Automatic annotation (TrEMBL):
Top-level lineage group: Bacteria
Transmembrane segments: 37-56, 62-79, 91-111, 131-151, 163-181, 196-220
Keywords: Membrane, Transmembrane, Transmembrane helix
Record-annotated Sensor histidine kinase NatK-like C-terminal domain positions: 338-433
Matches recorded under PANTHER family: TWO-COMPONENT SENSOR HISTIDINE KINASE (PTHR40448)
Single GO MF descriptor: identical protein binding
Name the UniProt record assigns to this protein: Sensor histidine kinase NatK-like C-terminal domain-containing protein
Length: 437
């Protein structure tokens, strides 16, 4: 009997194991190779904690509620430290898991009251606790696929900070509702028709929460699709403009070549007349009438070349010296739209910083592909950007810089790295990307 009493609090605390596993499932792209280490050391440590804390609760005859709150607080701190992601995102995920698991606890109470007619204060029996633990592990199995696909996509792609600033309210409200609606005594469930509508209420809350997350996912997919189409349209416009410029340059060159033999005849006449001054004047006039130099491509990839030419023209208009040295293959190392978006964000931010600068403006871009791809960009920036920990704060709106955050997220998604630094009036951006395969 004492063994059963001792196992009871240990089992109640053990539901933190499937809960924290569910929290980590969407974070595979952000663990930087620490997933296996966390599994090997984190899970055994948590098991030892549940056994030790459960034994202490049994020994001192304490309720596991306070110990469970302490466990949740420690897990939240560990979770935020282990995942190098925005605190708003990690807290959102943790609260969502807490909200879902609180529904499982209410279901366990209902099953306990149905199978074993109880009285007094609500306290799960050992059999109901075992069933509660099984329900939690079953829930982990059911939500494994959505967590590793839909939830992971949301964390990787939804980079608007304002979304995560307010999204944590929903799981917190569901957790509070589940806690508030939880009966304090078993007699409450046996009163009137409570036993009939209480399970419907619990399942309805759980269904609404899951439905809300599903709607948010579908809405985010639609918004991301529109953004991607907008980026592709912008890239297409740049490519079209670049194509027209190349066509004009080719036509001008052909026209100049066609007229070249006529100029040779005129020069020959000047030479035969023996008037060297006429030759010099004619050559000077001809040189001034020549079309501009043919546009030289920055790289073999047409889309990336169009991006570079577009921002080179913008830099010329605002009197910024742009120097680009690109050594990369025709095929981009990551999907072409994502690389073009990354490069465009860096160049746009650099041009914005140069436009606000009073010192000589310059942008120095170097791209080198050798196995991995290395990109560095230095640009004039009179004022250091504001930052919060690892993220830069936008100068265009309240919140974090979406461009730099997008660059950092893209780099992390492809096992790379992105770093930003300001020193003595120059902003330095460095990006490393690995193959998408």
């Amino acid at each position: 009997m004492e063994l059963y009493d001792m196992l009871h609090p240990m089992l109640e605390l053990s539901i933190s194991i499937p809960a924290i596993i569910l929290c980590f499932l969407p974070m595979k792209n952000h663990l930087n190779g620490k997933g296996r280490l966390l599994l090997l050391w984190g899970i055994p440590t948590l098991i030892l904690w549940c056994v030790g804390a459960g034994w202490l609760c049994w020994r001192l005859r304490y309720s596991t509620k306070l110990c469970m709150l302490l466990t949740q607080a420690l897990l939240l701190l560990f979770y935020c430290k282990a995942v190098p992601l925005s605190r708003w995102k990690t807290v959102n995920v943790f609260l969502a898991v807490c909200g879902v698991f609180s529904s499982m606890y209410n279901l366990a109470i209902l099953i306990d009251a149905t199978l074993f007619r109880r009285s007094g204060a609500v306290a799960l029996s050992l059999n109901s606790t075992i069933l509660y633990v099984l329900l939690c592990w079953l829930l982990l199995g059911v939500l494994c696929y959505p967590a590793t696909h839909a939830a992971r996509w949301l964390l990787d792609e939804v980079e608007t900070p304002e979304t995560w600033y307010i999204f944590w309210i929903l799981p917190l409200v569901f957790w509070c509702l589940n806690t508030t609606l939880r009966p304090r005594k078993y007699s409450t469930l046996y009163t009137n028709r409570v036993m009939h509508f209480y399970p419907i209420l619990i399942l309805a809350l759980l269904g609404l929460m899951l439905l809300y997350y599903a709607l948010f996912y579908w809405m985010a997919r639609g918004i991301a699709k529109n953004i991607r189409l907008s980026q592709e349209n912008k890239l297409l416009q740049m490519q079209t403009a670049q194509y027209r410029t190349l066509q004009k340059s080719i036509a001008d060159t052909r026209r100049a070549r066609h007229d070249l033999h006529q100029h040779f005849k005129a020069l020959q006449g000047c030479v035969e007349s023996g008037d060297i001054s006429k030759v010099a004047a004619y050559v000077k006039a001809y040189g001034e009438s020549l079309p501009p130099d043919t546009i030289h491509p920055f790289c073999k990839n047409y889309a990336v070349d169009a991006i570079l030419h577009h921002y080179a023209e913008q830099a010329l208009l605002q009197k910024t010296d742009l120097e680009a040295v690109v050594q990369m293959e025709e095929q981009t190392i990551i999907p072409e739209p994502e690389f073009c978006s990354l490069l465009g964000n860096l160049l746009e931010n650099a041009l914005d910083a140069c436009a606000a600068s009073k010192t000589p403006r310059f942008i120095r871009l170097h791209i080198r592909q050798q196995g991995s791809l290395y990109l560095t960009m230095d640009n004039t920036s009179d004022q250091p950007p504001l930052s919060d920990e690892k993220r830069l704060i936008s100068s265009k709106h309240d919140g974090f810089g979406i461009g730099t955050e997008s660059v950092r997220m893209t780099a992390e998604r492809y096992n790379g790295d992105a770093r930003f630094e300001w020193r003595e009036g120059v902003f330095y951006a460095s990006v490393m990307l690995s193959s998408a395969d």
